[in-house]
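Page 42, continued from yesterday. The earlier attempt failed because a stray header line got pasted into the input along with the sequence. Redoing it now with the clean sequence only.
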Amino acid sequence: MSEATVVQLQPDVNRPTYFDDMTPGTRWVSPRRTIGEGDVSAFAGLSGDFNPLHVDEVFAAEGPFGRRVVHGALVFGVATGLRQQMGVFNGSLRALLELREWKFVKPVFIGDTIIVVTTVESARPTSKGDAGVVVQRVEVVNQDGVTVQTGQLVSLVSRDPGAAS
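This time it went through. Structure tokens are written below.
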């Protein structure tokens, strides 16, 4: 992922981005978020995942990454939160329908900062016509411009109730 290829779209936080607005190629970028020690500790406690690769500095130093890594599920969770903070859906998102081909490409370390780049790949209306299914390519990118997680999110998104049918 090259920073030069990313277009920052500023959604109107006072208006949801409806299905009708999500044409293939539409792309937006989240705010940044640094993942800290407290995030890892809280996630380990919440999830019960105390794998020493995440919580034991001495053990992790001897492991494949040479230091502790952030839980992949924590990174995914932060990514979904960053996507929500963009204000893109603001009430138009009805459901997350599917995760496709989600890959944990590179490790994320405590202190790394991530952004989420979302690109609409396809959009089709539902048979009822009041919503649409949107397939989005999602890339979680670290501070060095390296994609650390990627996959597709399939969402059910409301149509604009004010638009002519």
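Notes: Strands lie at 27-29, 33-34, 93-104, 113-125, 131-142, 147-158.
Reminder to self: strip header lines before submitting.
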